[in-house]
User: Which sequence fits this backbone?
């Protein structure tokens, strides 16, 4: 009896684990400008090629501008990094979705969009949120630059097997509560190191009921719970999403793939080293108050009293007091975007709340679609007009204010409600204070200029 | 590999890679000189040069996969980091760059006060505290061999080229 993780692992072992780690085959390798230059330099030094150019795909997302798709006049160091990726991809024959491509976008948004992310595959990228792709029942995790070089050169990784950790969400979600709230609730419960050494498998009726965009939101933040990867067993929702996409199997291949994919879910009685159950029906919208994603509370709760020096430092940084309510706390910036919450359904959620309303004049609101394709679809539905009429900025696709490498940042001492995944000190800019929440909570807060409960806007 | 040095201590838990090296310094295309920006936004950590060993709180290196965090620590001069636990990707990245992630229990960790002289011996997997106990620490056996013998992991995988090609034929 095997788990989903066991099955994918077993199917990709090239050389089994001995004293040395196993050699695991990697089906898809996604690359971007920030974590690859040193890897390509390493390849050149060794005189090696990229082993599978047809399994390696590049895009530009982390450090690019989102005010326009042009690098002219942009930060010279960032522009140089972007150009370096283009040169490396050209030299090594790796397909690249650059700023002129209609397929460009955040690496974890475009992989699924293009149909590269498929059930049962192994997929890696030099980015910790590669866990996102696990929503399809693909074993996907972030790697460092040395490992990027390793995969470019060999299409393999040296890996020791992780343990299995089952996360079960039962019961229907209440209105106003989303996938983002589910994953924040999990991390608040188990802590940011809770899943270290494990791969999560998210199960239960609440997970089954989610669409693919929402499933990706959950798997995306597996890493914030300490697990390198998070998985959701593929089902009809998954198959429907993948079918017909550019790189999806077609015709007879599709039928064969489907037959294989249907065998992937964990067997009844398969062994999990750890498990936790969360009553999804009793969840409220969640928000973070501190400086790691585990410092999250229900929107209507009060900031807890600090119990460690780290908590004390976090509250000082956030300028929050123990016992204080977050509802009504004044904010300055709202960011809707990032590989956590920048897909079409996220934008629909936010636009639905904003329609006919205005962003509070004290707030700067940035809406950054996850990919060019998301942007195109959103514009076809008129979502861009809703955002612009409300007073929000509608930007080009990229990571933007999630990592604040490209100049899109929150000023020091200012507070943002952000749909991204990390509230670390300085993550959105030096001295920036980040409150992580769902697109619904972010949009509601934009309207009020204060942390607000989206359920009051229903 | 033996490292003997007085220690710098940053007692905080969950030090993430954004604190180790803020994202705005990730626009480089090489690894050199990046140590200049180590903990740049955390001056209160008071991490000074001239020490080989950094001691930090639990779950060190959580957050992003950026290997720049390891390069910055190494470039600054550190050869080992001691904590009660490390984030998975950070630990992998460290081992691949010869920066030793040394995990100890919280009793031992509590003895690691600033300025204490510590000796780490990779071969015997021991950590000795001057005037205190000697404890063992776990490390992946393969990574240990790689570091001690200067074995190259990519070279190691490429030795299995026939197995890789066979796998590719089958799939
Ligand atoms: S959106 Fe943020 S978390 Fe996602 S890949 Fe970009 S920088 Fe990383």
Assistant:
């Amino acid at each position: 009896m095997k788990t989903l993780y066991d099955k994918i692992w077993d199917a990709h072992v090239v050389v089994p684990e001995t004293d040395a780690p196993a050699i695991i085959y990697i089906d898809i390798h996604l690359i971007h400008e920030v974590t690859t230059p040193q890897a390509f330099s390493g390849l050149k030094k060794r005189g090696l090629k990229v082993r599978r150019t047809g399994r390696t795909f590049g895009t530009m997302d982390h450090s690019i501008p989102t005010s326009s798709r042009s690098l002219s006049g942009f930060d010279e160091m960032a522009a140089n990094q972007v150009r370096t990726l283009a040169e490396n991809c050209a030299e090594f024959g790796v397909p690249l979705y650059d700023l002129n491509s209609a397929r460009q976008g955040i690496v974890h948004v475009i992989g699924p969009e293009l149909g590269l992310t498929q059930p049962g595959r192994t997929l890696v990228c030099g980015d910790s949120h590669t866990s996102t792709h696990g929503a399809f029942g693909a074993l996907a995790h972030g790697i460092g630059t040395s490992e990027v070089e390793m995969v470019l050169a060999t299409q393999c990784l040296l890996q020791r097997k992780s343990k299995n950790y089952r996360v079960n969400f039962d019961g229907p979600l209440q209105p106003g509560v989303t996938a983002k709230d589910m994953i924040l609730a999990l991390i608040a419960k188990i802590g940011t190191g809770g899943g270290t050494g494990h791969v999560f498998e998210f199960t239960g009726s609440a997970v089954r009921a989610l669409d693919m965009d929402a499933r990706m939101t959950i798997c995306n933040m597996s890493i914030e719970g300490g697990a390198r990867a998070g998985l959701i067993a593929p089902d009809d929702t998954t198959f429907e999403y993948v079918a017909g996409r550019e790189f999806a199997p077609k015709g007879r291949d599709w039928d064969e793939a489907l037959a294989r994919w249907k065998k992937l879910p964990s067997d009844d009685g398969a062994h999990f080293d750890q498990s936790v159950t969360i009553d999804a029906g009793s969840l409220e919208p969640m928000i973070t108050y501190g400086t790691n994603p585990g410092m999250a509370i229900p929107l209507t709760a009060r900031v807890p009293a600090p119990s460690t020096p780290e908590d004390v430092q976090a509250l000082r940084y956030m300028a929050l007091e123990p016992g204080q309510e977050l509802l009504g706390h004044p904010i300055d910036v709202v960011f809707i975007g990032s590989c956590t919450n920048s897909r079409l359904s996220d934008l629909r959620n936010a636009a639905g709340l904003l329609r006919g309303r205005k962003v509070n004049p004290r707030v700067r609101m940035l809406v950054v679609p996850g990919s060019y394709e998301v942007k195109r679809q959103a514009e076809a539905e008129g979502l861009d007009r809703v955002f612009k009429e409300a007073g929000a900025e509608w930007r080009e696709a990229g990571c933007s204010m999630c990592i604040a490498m490209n100049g899109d940042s929150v000023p020091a001492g200012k507070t943002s409600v952000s749909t991204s995944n990390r509230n670390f000190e300085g993550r959105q800019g030096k001295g920036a204070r980040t409150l992580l929440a769902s697109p619904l909570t972010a949009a509601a807060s934009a309207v009020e200029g204060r942390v607000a409960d989206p359920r009051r806007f229903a | 590999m033996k490292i003997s040095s007085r220690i710098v201590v940053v007692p905080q838990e969950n030090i993430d890679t954004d604190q180790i090296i803020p994202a705005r310094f990730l626009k480089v295309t090489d690894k050199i000189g990046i140590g200049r920006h180590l903990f740049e936004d955390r001056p209160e950590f008071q991490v000074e040069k001239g020490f080989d060993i950094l001691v930090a709180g639990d779950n060190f290196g959580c957050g992003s996969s950026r290997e720049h965090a390891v390069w910055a620590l190494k470039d600054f001069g550190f050869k080992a980091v001691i904590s009660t636990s490390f984030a998975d990707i950070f630990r992998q990245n460290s081992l691949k760059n010869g920066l030793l992630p040394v995990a100890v229990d919280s009793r031992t960790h509590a003895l690691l006060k600033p300025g204490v002289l510590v000796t780490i011996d990779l071969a015997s997997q021991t950590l000795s505290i001057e005037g205190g106990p000697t404890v063992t620490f776990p490390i992946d056996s393969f990574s240990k061999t790689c570091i001690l013998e200067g074995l190259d992991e990519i070279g190691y995988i490429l030795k299995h080229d026939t197995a890789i090609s066979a796998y590719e034929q089958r799939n």
